[in-house]
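FAQ

Q: What does a record look like?
A: Structure on top, sequence underneath. For example:
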């Protein structure tokens, strides 16, 4: 009897397990400019970490039905240009081949960035940064776009 209980527990664990997924792309979900995303995905949810050229991020996505093209989630991280003290976005992604399949993904998000804005051209940021003056930290509402390919 004990063997049957252990076997049934193992079967339920295997049936609920997910798979690992990699992706490359542009945008905050990929660690900013150009980055790679490494995720663990089940049928309806994906948890991921991203490492990009000027930043990194962690997040999750979920979909309401199996292999839907639409996914919703949250991403948070740091990137060196406008959010060197962090960002957080609520995201929406469209998966052209479905959430569970390989293919192109485009996404958008709305959230907040926090940083000193190293390249703020409207505040003469480049000249101030060359003089090593302390920049004012801003918290701004922001909009993000992303595009990527998942393998």
């Amino acid at each position: 009897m004990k063997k049957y209980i252990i076997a049934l527990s193992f079967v339920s664990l295997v049936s609920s397990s997910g798979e690992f997924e990699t992706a490359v792309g542009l945008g905050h979900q990929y660690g900013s400019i150009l980055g790679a995303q490494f995720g663990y995905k089940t049928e309806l949810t994906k948890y991921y970490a991203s490492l990009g050229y000027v930043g990194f991020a962690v997040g999750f996505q979920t979909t309401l039905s199996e292999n839907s093209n639409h996914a919703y989630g949250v991403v948070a991280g740091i990137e060196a240009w406008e959010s060197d003290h962090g960002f957080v976005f609520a995201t929406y992604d469209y998966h052209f081949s479905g959430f569970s399949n390989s293919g192109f993904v485009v996404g958008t998000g709305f959230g907040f960035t926090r940083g000193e804005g190293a390249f703020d051209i409207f505040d003469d940021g480049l000249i101030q940064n060359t003089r090593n003056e302390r920049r004012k930290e801003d918290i701004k509402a922001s909009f993000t776009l992303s595009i990527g390919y998942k393998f």
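Q: Is there anything notable about this one?
A: Strands lie at 19-27, 32-41, 45-52, 55-62, 70-79, 83-95, 103-115, 138-150.
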